[in-house]
Amino acid sequence: MIDLSTTYLGSTLKNPLVVSSSPLCEKIDNIRRMEDAGAAAVVLHSLFEEQITLESHHLDRYLSHGTESFAESLTYFPDMVDYNLGPDAYLEHLRQAKVAVDIPIIGSLNGISTGGWISYAKKIQEAGADALELNLYYIPTDPDLSGAQVEQMYVDLVRDVKASVSIPVAVKLGHSFSAFANLARRLDQAGANGLVLFNRFYQPDFDLENLEVVHTLTLSSSYELLLRLHWIAILYGHIRADLAVTGGVHTAHDVLKAMMAGARVTMMTSALLKNGIGHLTTVRSDLLAWMEGHEYESIRQMQGSMSHRSVAEPAAFERANYIKVLSSYVLKT
Amino acid sequence: MVQEQIVSKKLRFFIIDGYRVARETGMGARINTVMQTCFFAISGVLPRNEAIAAIKHAIEKTYGKRGEAVVQKNFAAVDSTLAHLYEVQAPNQVTSSFDLRAAVPAESPEFVQKVIAKMIAGEGDLLPVSALPVDGTYPSGTAQWEKRNIALEIPVWDEDLCIQCGKCVLVCPHSVIRAKISEPQLLAGAPPTLKSAPARWREFKDLRYILQVAPEDCTGCVLCVEVCPAKSKSEVRHKAINMMPQPPIREQEAQNWKFFLQLPETERQALSLSHVKDVQLLQPLFEFSGACAGCGETPYIKLVSQLFGDRAIIANATGCSSIYGASMPTTPWAANQNGRGPAWSNSLFEDNAEFGLGMRLALDKQMEYARELVGRLSDTLGDELAEALLLADQSTDADIRAQRDRVMLLKKRLRVVSTPEARDLLSLADALVKKSVWIIGGDGWAYDIGFGGLDHVLASGRNVNVLVLDTEVYSNTGGQMSKATPRGAVAKFAAGGKPTPKKDLALMVIPYGNTYVARVAMGGSDSQTIKAFCEAEAYEGPSLIIAYSHCIAHGYDMRYGMDQQKAAVLSGHWPLFRYNPDLVKEGKNSLQLDSKPPSLPLKKYVYNETRYTMLVHSDPAGAKRLLELAQEDVLARWHFYEYLAAMPVGGTEKKEEHHD
Asked: How far is B62 from chain A (nearest CA, A)?
């Protein structure tokens, strides 16, 4: 009997297949189907810092616009008793998800400032989340802001959130840091229970006909996995926090590679958007078949087996490898 | 004068840049909280600290349910107000060299100076009854003297980038952005900052094109900038018109505007009135109304005034259009250089269609009697003139101009005849020129309160043009639900979202088969809008135009009104079409669909507006259910229209095929 179980953020999961945070998780029905298809845990879609404040400002702006200005009509909308704003709907969704499925539900909070909004971390905990994923998506456009300042901001935020909750907290972030291993260690020291590598940054495109900046969303591909494998392999064994791979996980082979690099879990969204939620079942059975064929007993057995410190040639992850690769380029025609 | 009052009464004088405080604390252009704080801070009705605490308590109570961020924003505005409120130390004697501007400019007409200016200054109670017109009519074209100066920023033209498309002129709700083409030599004496560019018309290539803004009448709505398609190649946010602070350029642009106004208008005969580019050169006879900044209704009314204004007679239902159309003391309806402009009157909410029909019947009777008299007096008038007057085809602008010339000649000949019949004809002579009767109102009138009358008037077959400015809600009285309100939209009396679909007024009228019906949205297709207005007016029978009008009661940033109209069309909420009964004569189906099948999910259109999103916040499950139903409504209706538009003319061919 092959053991697919793993542990992540204090929970034992039946396998390493976790559904990452995306709008797919906005429907309870989808979450049920994810569990049925074999997902071991689900990270809910994110509650955005901006959403919490912006929705309020928006509502206020348009409910107020033109009011108290004309003799015949002082207002233009009926006065509602209450508005279900920002976190309320999210928390209710989380409660419903917890009732609907048995697998762990991880709440997701997306923001960057250590403002009052982090109190929602506590509310997510109270609503029953098994853990919290803190998604730090930040584009430092200010030329006066140094890398050290940005890193400190991340560390402070993790410390503040950790101080406000007792459930495990994972940090999801991008890879654009000059010394990622050091940042990972500092986040680890600040109390992060998990690191989710890496956020994919959505890059705006240009519409040449209308001269407008347009938003594009391209799904990930397995090629993007390589960057994640590289860093998981380097970090494995150097920090306490659980490592998770997100971005580029599409097949059982991708999952196996992530496990061998040292990840506890792999997260998927693009693959599900492309192939449907049922794709989880395929990945799980492919995983079992491969492990059976290669005589592996458990996932735990392979976790970290190809990390930086476990491989025969650690240089493969370092500069020496770069020189080797470069010199291997030859003209094919 | 002002300073004298301050000095003599020993007044304490405070100033605050309210807009700056509001802008910097995230309150936008809303200065209510700021000014209220000022009042309590300086009036002393309560000890200052107690007053501020009371204001903050009221803010929590009023805005608390809109979210903590809103409460904090208002608190910040209160605190910032106190930090930016300054007392001005007035001197002990009068030193000022300037004073408040007069209520109206010195060059305004006598009635404006003596009567209207008093009302603007808030001294209307001092006017004797005898100062007002005795016959119930009121001078028109007086809104131009108000010079409200309410815009913080106004559009400024970049003549090098401009492609002269005319979209900004078409969309301007207050007729403050206008275009003319002029002989170059007429610009010789222009103020130094007046801009012009070579006209981009093949037939006017030797002329200069001028796009001018009325700086003191603009409301700063930004619709013109948003609709402008021309972007700079080196900085794409820079367009052919851009918003700039008004105060530094007010005086120079006021001079330019004055100069612009005296340039000759383009002869209508030289223009193609079905094109946006040419319509921009028609003088609007509806200007500077009191409508909201960015109003979605007034561009349509202005268009009527440009196309048919010099011979239009308008019956206006009560509602927004009657308020901004004639609220005391000024009138936005105006006349051209020949003194011709729309005659306008406002009736009750419930009888406007009948009111307009009465105008039509009276005009028809007058014309009938005038024609009879022309026949009887043909010997006196000369057979040639009489015959030309009676047989005149008045379907084009050129025809109408020719008939006007004949009527002038007729009057001249009649003045020397003193028979009772000649005197009658003299008083009726103008009735020989074709008039354009417009019955205008909102959806509250057309769909609800005046529907019985509207139905009666359309069924009568008489030649009237009905323009329904559909904001899908009773706007003027504060957003009450009408039968035009779409399913799922929140309105007063529909706080849970309107449970039933929007009434399809067009579809109720089309089966009469005698009425021209068009559904238009300027932001969806401006050329289709213009085409529909021209066809409706030309149609010898009743016409109904239902015009999508964005509105502050939708909870939407009106500067993007045209984008939202486009979304309404793309989603299928507002399909564009024209139903012209005359097409049957050409063997064509009367119904022509002018927009494509729905390509945008309805929620992408509706959830741009607070009238829909507030239901998502107050009743998410209900909002979801109503959205699904509304989406079904849209698709079902589109399929029905498609079916109607594909039906064979006469409905016989298909039947024969079936029997074969």
From this structure: 11
Residue B492 to residue A77, Cβ atoms within 8 A: yes
**Residue B537 in this model has a pLDDT that exceeds 60:** yes
Identify the residue with better confidence: B608 or A80: B608
Instruction: Tell me the average pLDDT across A44-73.
Output: 83
Print the SS3 string covering A152-205.
HHHHHHHHHHHHHCCCCEEEEECCCCCCHHHHHHHHHHCCCCEEEECCCCCCCE
In angstroms, what separates the C-alpha of B620 from chain A's closest C-alpha?
A: 8
CA distances from residue B592 to A45, A49, A134, A141, B575 in whole angstroms, order as listed: 45, 48, 55, 51, 11
Return the pLDDT at A219: 86
pLDDT of B659: 46
pLDDT band for B401, please (50, 70, 90 cuts): very high
Residue B25's closest chain A neighbor by CA?
A57
Contact by Cβ (8 Å): B74, B27: yes
Would you kindly state where each structural domain of chain B is located, as residue ranges? 17-84, 110-139, 147-282, 364-432, 472-651
B609: nearest CA in chain A? Answer: A62
Fold of A6-327: TIM Barrel (3.20.20)
Distance CA A246, CA A266 (A): 6
Strand ranges inside B135-245, DSSP E: 153-157, 177-182, 197-198, 208-213, 241-245
Question: What local confidence, expressed as pLDDT, does residue A138 receive?
Answer: 82
Contact B30 A64 (CB under 8 A): yes
CATH number 3.30.70.20 is the correct assignment for the domain at B147-282: yes
Residues of B in contact with A52 (CB under 8 A): 67, 69
Q: Write down the architecture of domain B472-651 according to CATH.
A: 3-Layer(aba) Sandwich (3.40)
Residue in A closest to B556 by C-alpha: A62
Work out the minimum CA distance from A308 to partner chain B, whole angstroms. 47
The count of other CB atoms within 10 Å of the CB of residue B9 is 8
Phi-psi region of A262 (alpha: psi -120 to 50; beta: other; left: phi over 0): left
Tell me: the pLDDT tens digits for B29-73? Answer: 889 999 999 999 999 888 989 999 999 999 999 888 888 889 999
Sign of CA dihedral A96, A99, A101, A103: positive
Span A321-327, average pLDDT: 71
Q: Which residues of B touch A (CB under 8 A)?
A: 26, 28, 30, 32, 63, 65-70, 73, 231, 236, 292, 323, 475-479, 490-495, 552-553, 555-557, 609-611, 613-614, 616-618, 620
Mutation choice for B interface testing from A73, A117, A118 by most B CBs within 10 A? A73
> Quick check: A58 and B477 CB within 8 A?
no
Radius of gyration of chain B (CA): 28
* Closest by Cβ to B476, choosing from A59, A73, A78: A73
Whether residue A187 contacts residue A237, with contact meaning beta carbons closer than 8 Å, is answered with no
pLDDT tens digit sequence for B145-168: 999 999 999 999 999 999 999 999
Q: Is A78 on the interface with B (CB under 8 A)?
A: yes
Q: Kindly determine whether residue B478 and residue A68, on different chains, have CB atoms separated by under 8 Å.
A: no
B147-282 and B472-651 in the same fold: no
**pLDDT value at residue A332:** 63
Region A117-127: mean pLDDT is 87
Is pLDDT above 70 for A106? yes
Percent of residues, chain A, with pLDDT higher than 70:
96
Does the beta carbon of A322 lie under 8 angstroms from any beta carbon of chain B? Answer: no
- Global ipTM: 0.82
Across the interface, of B323, B552, B613, the residue whose CB is closest to A76 is: B552
Say if residues A77 and A12 touch (Cβ distance below 8 Å).
Answer: no
Q: Is the pLDDT of residue A162 over 70?
A: yes
pLDDT tier at A314, thresholds 50, 70, 90: confident
Considering CB atoms only, which of B67, B292, B476 is closest to A86?
B67
